[in-house]
Design a protein that fits this description.
Strand content of chain B: 15-25%
CATH superfamily of the largest domain in chain B: Response regulator
Structural class of chain A: mainly alpha
Helix content of chain A: over 70%
Largest interface: A-B, 36 and 39 residues
Oligomer: heterotrimer
Chains: A mainly alpha (287), B alpha/beta (391), C alpha/beta (259)
Mean pLDDT of chain B: 86
Distance between the termini of chain A: 43 Å
Number of domains of chain B: 2
CATH topology of the largest domain in chain B: Rossmann fold
Radius of gyration of chain A: 19 Å
Strand content of chain A: under 5%
Largest sheet of chain A: none
């Protein structure tokens, strides 16, 4: 049971982080290879505030999210005007710089040895409620003026500007929202593992999240959610393969990306309308 | 409608069957978990510990098992990743293991502590970070046990040897700031040296992936150090040893476990691999190793590395704890572990302190590398480490 | 004061004068044509007016207010709408959403209203949707609202670009070769549509076009560009009679032919 619960909790935490990548990559077409750094900021800020300064939980979590958003502002301001490929380079550098900073400020962060003894506050209900709330916020964002304008600038930035869209502002807002979500996933992570180390937040995590968004279908939020669940549970089902586990996992991901270039869901979304269409079809089938 | 109910029934039966399979460890079997990096960056260590543990399990089973029940090892991959390890531990607990052989990675131990304390299934590992077994309140972590010297004990052995035996007092330190293992071996060393009247004349750092250490080495040389403490991984140890020769910095290196074989043959230059001191868990010549050594060599066709013996001794400890507590459940292992005393293991005589859940007075075998050859200097333990109840 | 007044528009790319000292204007409700051979700088002039490139020199006055130096989105919001020579619809969005997106920059609600499902958000979403449907209906695309634009035939994609430009609320509408790729009956239909829209919204229209039928029927004034420079300007009749224009288009030998 604990095993099932802990896997669900990690899936939920990963999902909230991946939602941030979905906003940046899926919706806006940018690449952030430093997204895990926001997770680190969220986790570390809340942990240090609670452990070292006895700040109560709610303000500590709020401050952690604010800190992640400030960091997003810091990276976002100079980068949103850059070309897309430069953004991925700058965010990659930012992410690694945060890891180096955590290593160097050993008197606050414990350096490479990490912070231990963080209270375990993340429980299954907390994660489930968080996932529902974060997912609802992202669905709203996608289906509002923000989401439409993001998709517009992703498909044609010049045309988007010509339709009166302030693309820099929009990218920055999306970046901040994504930073807040990813920061919050870091808070949940720290409060679940009770231990944080800089090495857990390197660019590989950011790259994995980007892969998840692509496997799901860059334009589909439903696909992103499905791919997160699939790719966090897949390694568990592959445990029987022991040392071949990682290799098999990679082959499966490659096959999906190769044979479904648009991802599992492509651009489709699970909405009441498509659901009705699906149900309608199965009802008619037996006749 | 009828069809639907039947489908549900079928599913329910299937789930029940599966649950039965997972849950039903046969009465004659005692399950022991083993969490190691099998597919990640440190899988060389993980595989070595696993093989050692398997040899111990086979030996115990051949002698009739524990209380007539056979031991069975279930191995879980951690990928050297905290998140994977937590999932793996919980998975092992679900399958009903009574104890877990832990990985030689402290970060995982730190994350597992609170979870294991709650689950009540003890982890016996070689985590060198003392925080794994002793909480911040100074009390031992109920379910976490260490079976080799902690980083504090290990660095103190090295520091004591440096200053008390070799008489070196002006020390230069070089370490990887981004590596938990290196940092945890550096701090207690420096503290011991300072307390014993020595001096750190230069402290230099580098980060993961650096290949050129000549700048740092030159600074340490110019600071007038009479030895270099370098607690790092084997790849960097080889580079530093060669570069020390290139800049003509001829003082002893005080190193860690990573200078143990096959280090000298990797340097492959007797002029460079010279004047280096290290401590190992055991000496190849020690008689208690022979049995495991021979079994391993026959099975895998190569000489065992030290992690094999760590894996072997972890199983011995779990067996001893069961014996002392008079039962084979996880509660018994938890109860027995802290009172293990004078257990003859392959890596030394193991006595677990109930206050720290760490071994007490565990000595290490000192070596000096001279012109590419390992010269054994005998076991060493600082005066400070000897506990009144240990041998 | 003209609605749109462009003075001394100048832009060089790597030493080549793409647009050279081009001045022109448009009154409210007027349709102005810009013609010229390929590479004459027509599209560049549009890109300069809409802020895609910064000007080297010149000024662009809309209702007397300077637009030069402003950001692209600011220029659009001050009342310059446009379509593109090579259709640039938003692929990830539906037909309706393409039009809604052009109205979205005027939506005042913020994240707070969105995340709390506030009244401001819900009301504005309804408004934008209704307005977008209306624009689609104007160009006859309302039944394709939920389609992806890539599933539409070429002629309808052109119409969708116009509907999208309408949603930006233009005072001046820039159409860049809107009839390219249309068949003769579609061209006639298009001419009618532009006339209707001008009647309804009263905006000025600048149109770049090679199909002389479009230019001669719709425009009250025509500017002819050649190598970035203004070659001639006048009413359709004047331009038709102009020998320099004929030469620039067809070459000297065929000077006797009429355009």
């Amino acid at each position: 049971m604990d095993y099932f619960v802990s896997t669900v909790i990690f899936t939920g935490i990963a999902l909230i982080g991946v939602l941030g990548v979905y906003l940046i990559t899926g919706l806006t077409g940018l690449f952030s290879l430093g997204q895990a750094a926001f997770m680190a900021i969220g986790g570390y800020v809340s942990a240090v505030l609670i452990r070292n300064y006895n700040v109560p939980v709610v303000p500590a979590v709020a401050l952690a999210i604010v800190a992640a958003m400030l960091a997003a502002l810091l990276v976002g301001l100079p980068t949103v005007r850059l070309r897309r490929d430069y953004i991925s380079l700058v965010t990659l550098g930012f992410g690694e710089a945060i890891v180096a900073l955590l290593n160097n400020s050993a008197n606050i962060t414990g350096g490479a040895m990490g912070i231990s003894g963080i209270p375990q506050l993340t429980t299954l209900p907390v994660v489930l409620v968080s996932v529902v709330v974060c997912l609802a916020l992202v669905i709203l964002y996608k289906n509002s003026k923000y989401g439409r304008q993001c998709l517009a600038l992703r498909s044609d930035e010049l045309a988007a500007k010509s339709m009166g869209i302030d693309v820099y502002r929009l990218k920055l807002i999306t970046f901040l929202f994504a930073g807040a979500l990813t920061g919050y996933s870091g808070v949940l992570f720290g409060f679940y593992t009770t231990y944080l180390e800089p090495a857990a937040f390197n660019w590989i995590i950011s790259a994995e999240w980007t892969i998840i968004v692509f496997v799901g279908g860059v334009n589909s939020l439903t696909g992103t959610v499905l791919a997160t669940i699939l790719l966090t549970w897949l390694p568990e089902f592959l445990r029987f393969a022991s040392e071949w586990r990682v290799a098999i996992y990679c082959v499966i991901v490659l096959l999906i990306v190769n044979y479904r270039t648009a991802g599992i869901m492509g651009e489709r979304e699970l909405s009441p309308k498509t659901l009705r269409r699906l149900l309608g079809r199965t009802k008619e089938a037996p006749r | 409608m009828k069809n639907g109910t039947r489908k549900w029934l079928f599913c329910a039966v299937l789930v029940a069957l599966l649950a039965g399979f997972v849950g039903a460890a046969s009465a004659k079997e005692i399950l022991i978990g083993n969490m190691q990096d099998i597919s990640g960056p440190t899988s060389v260590w993980g595989n070595a510990v696993t093989r050692g543990a398997e040899i111990a399990v086979e030996k115990i089973n051949a002698a009739g098992g524990v209380d007539g029940a056979m031991l069975k090892l279930i191995t879980m991959d951690t990928k050297a990743n905290v998140q994977e390890a937590i999932k793996g531990y919980n998975s092992l607990v679900s399958s009903g293991v009574v104890a877990v052989v832990g990985p030689p990675v402290s970060n995982i131990g730190l994350a597992l502590g609170p979870i294991a304390n709650k689950a009540g299934v003890p982890v016996v590992g070689s985590f060198i970070d003392p925080r794994v077994t002793v909480g911040e309140d100074g009390k031992p972590q109920a379910a976490m046990f260490l079976m080799q010297p902690s980083s504090v004990q290990y660095s103190e052995i090295m520091a004591s040897y440096t200053i008390d035996v070799l008489g070196l007092k002006k020390i230069g330190v070089l370490y990887d700031q981004s590596n938990a293992f290196a940092v945890s071996l550096m701090k207690p060393y420096v503290e011991y040296i300072k307390a014993a009247g020595g001096e750190i004349v230069s402290e230099q750092v580098y980060t993961k992936g650096d290949k050129d250490f000549k700048t740092q080495l030159t600074k340490i040389k110019e600071a007038g150090a009479d030895c270099l403490y370098f607690p790092n991984y084997i790849q960097e140890a080889v580079l530093v040893t060669n570069q020390r020769k290139q800049i003509g910095f001829d003082v002893p290196i005080i190193g860690g476990l990573d200078f143990a074989p096959p280090f000298a043959s990797l340097v492959n230059d007797p002029e460079a691999a010279n004047n280096i001191y290290l401590a190992n868990n055991f000496s190849e010549k020690e008689p208690q190793l022979k049995e495991v050594w021979d079994v391993y060599k026959a099975k895998y066709g190569e000489n065992p590395v030290n992690k094999v013996f760590l894996g072997y001794d972890k199983i011995l400890l779990i067996q001893e704890a069961m014996k002392l507590a008079g039962g084979t459940s996880s509660e018994h292992v938890m109860k027995g572990m802290p009172v293990v005393a004078n257990l003859e293991g392959t890596t030394g005589v193991l006595t677990i302190s109930p206050d720290t859940h760490q071994p007490v007075g565990l000595s290490m075998v000192m070596y000096k590398i001279e012109k590419g050859e390992y010269v054994e200097l005998g076991r060493y333990v600082p005066e400070k480490h000897r506990a009144p109840w240990s041998k | 004061m003209s609605l749109l007044e462009v003075r001394n528009l100048t832009k060089s790319f790597g030493g080549v004068r793409a647009v050279d000292d081009f001045s022109f204007g448009a009154e409210q409700g007027e349709i102005v044509g810009i013609i010229g051979p390929n590479g004459a700088g027509k599209t560049t002039a549009f890109n300069l007016i809409t802020g895609v490139y910064p000007l080297d020199r010149g000024s662009i006055l809309l209702e007397g207010k300077e637009l030069a130096g402003k950001e692209q989105f600011e220029i659009t919001r001050s009342g310059i709408g446009r379509t593109f020579q090579n259709i640039r619809l938003f692929k990830g969005l539906s037909v309706l959403e393409n039009v809604m997106t052009a109205a979205d920059p005027y939506s005042p609600y913020g994240l707070f209203s969105l995340f709390t499902l506030g009244a401001a958000f819900r009301r504005r979403e309804r408004e934008v949707r209704a307005a977008a449907m209306e624009y689609l209906a104007l160009v006859g695309l309302e039944k394709y609202a939920d389609e992806k634009p890539s599933n539409l035939p070429y002629g309808l994609q052109r119409k969708l670009e116009i509907a999208r430009a309408l949603a930006t609320g233009p005072k001046v509408l820039l159409l860049d070769e809107p009839a390219a790729g249309l068949n003769p009956s579609e061209v006639r239909e298009f001419i009618g549509l532009v006339g209707e829209l001008r009647e309804r919204f009263g905006f000025a229209v600048l149109v770049i076009e090679h199909r002389m039928e479009v230019i001669m029927t719709l425009c009250s004034r025509i500017y002819v560009l050649n190598f970035g420079k203004l070659l001639a300007s006048g009413t359709p009749a004047e331009i038709r009679a102009n020998h320099e224009v004929t030469e620039a288009y067809i070459g000297k030998e065929d000077a006797s032919c009429s355009v």
